[in-house]
Design goal:
three-stranded parallel beta sheet, alpha/beta, single chain, about 150 residues, 4 helices
Amino acid sequence: MKLHNLKPAKGSTHSRRRLGRGQGSGLGGTSTRGHKGAKARSGYSKKIGFEGGQMPLQRRLPKSGFKNINHKEYLAVNISTLQHLAENKNLTKIGIQDLKDAGIVKGKKILVKILGNGELKAKLEVEANAFSKTAEEAIKAVGGNTTII
């Protein structure tokens, strides 16, 4: 067996219909498109959401809501996570790069907000984009420091 000898199994493939090749072929004339109408014309393509002339669903429903262009999405990191990270890697200063190295933050332009859930025992210097009041109080209560980037 060689590459130039390969053929599909007998009966496994079908030749395509050749439309519009004269009356003798049985597929001439209207070429299976029926008589007149948009679907009989060349260049026809059904528009997305077209419902045969009925008002489409996306136009029947009213508009609602808006998208705030000033909205910022933060990744929430609890102080319990910072405590766990500080214990495992013996850190005194935790920044966004440390969180990325630990696999907590994934991506380049992600904003990080530190939240106050959990208990913090280690004295840490923490750098992040935002802090909740409880997180800031908890970090300062153990003698740590917070820095907003």
